[in-house]
Amino acid sequence: MSRFIDKLKQVSQAEPQPMGFKKEKEFSKQRLLLVARLSRIDIDNPAGHLTGADAALLTIKKGSEINAFEKAIGLMKNVPWGIWFEGTSHGGMKQAMEAGCDFIAFPPEMPLEAIDDGEPGKVLLVEASLEASLLRTIDELPVDAVIITGEQVAGETLSWRHLMLFRRLADISNKPLLTSVSSAITGDGLQAIWEAGVSGVIVEATADELNKLSKVIDGLTPPSKHRRIKMRAIVPKLGEEAARIADEEEEDF
Known about the structure:
The chain has 253 residues and is α/β, with parallel strands linked by helices. The chain contains ten helices and eight strands. It has an eight-stranded parallel beta barrel with strand order 1-2-3-4-5-6-7-8. Strand 1 (33-38), helix 2 and strand 2 form a beta-alpha-beta unit.
């Protein structure tokens, strides 16, 4: 099982710590997850670069590029790492698995046979503005989480549109959500994203920027609820409601 996916599910499903002096069990503090997206310039000292990160993502366009990260992979023993496939070329997948790849992120266009049940954590890249009918199918797919694409937060600018799209996807799907953000994002921006239902952020940053972001995240306030109760889960369907009323009328006789 993927170590990172386990963390992600704990964050997305965690209940807020109860109030009061008496604690019946120990609660670990909820924390928005921080994922460092690495490029080739980071491979010489990934261990130092990843201070404060919960996971690392190696971006490749074709499978053969995994060789460029061989040194970095050998040094990333304590941080779960995954591969972000920007294209549909999946050559080198076997090599990555043998090297200890913890999870993979891939576009919907990736060939089905490229990823089987024996692979580690599966993260699907999904356009935030995708039509609702397709978004609803995500929960039925054998993937563990979703990376929201097409709506990356640039600089410190976080718009209401971002929050609307994040919340829309969080309300439709129960899969843990991640999104890419800038290293310049503020604590208020991170708090708003977390409140909107996102469980982890992906960032390209220097070691200092990453460490700073980690400390900012440590100071955030956990949302009271990660998942809003969905209307379709609490409002009975018309057919079910009609059947219930009919049964009650029969019982009256």
